[in-house]
Amino acid sequence: MQRKFIAHLERFNQINVFLGRLEMRPAKDSNKKLQNWLNALPRRDDMDLPSNAVDELTSIAQAVSAPIWIEKAVDVMLATDMVSMAYEGQYDVAYLVSADGDFTPAVKKVRAIGRKVFAASPQYGAKLAGVVNTFIPMDREFFHGCWL
User: Which residues have CB under 8 Å from 139's CB, separation 6+?
Assistant: First the structure.
């Protein structure tokens, strides 16, 4: 479905599609809740459990870690394009679909040369919202019908 959507976008001359890369990272603190619960248990002598049950559960909690996938490099490409294209006069208004505060320096630079930047996102990013011309909140209804 995503490839079909990207192919559709690439048919327009004024839309550039840049794909980043995905990197697998170990999940941080994926089992912290279980470890905290185990640490909060009363003394092992006072419990009616097999003697090694808590030790086994603790060992499992420490061993279990689900990897997560992180998208890399897309924000740098987007920020670079926003600034360079603004300096080249290729647009007057940029629409940034993000709430990521990492875009703040690029947005400030773009606005300093007289371009407008509107950000839209289902999440609210106070840092980014503070530097764009307008922040547009996107609710669930906005996405209705997007995935056919």
Answer: 122
Q: Taking the complete model, does pTM exceed 0.90, yes or no?
A: no
pLDDT in tens, 119-130: 999 889 999 999
CA distance 79 to 106: 6
Q: ∠ CA 83-118-144 to the nearest 5 degrees? A: 125
Q: CA-CA distance, 48 to 41, in Å (whole number)?
A: 12
Tens digit of each residue's pLDDT (9 = 90 or more) over 52-68: 777 777 777 666 667 78
Strand 93-97: give its sheet, edge to edge: 93-97, 116-121, 134-137
State how far the Cα of 89 lies from the Cα of 83, in Å rounded to an integer. 10
Task: Give me the chain's average pLDDT, please.
Answer: 82
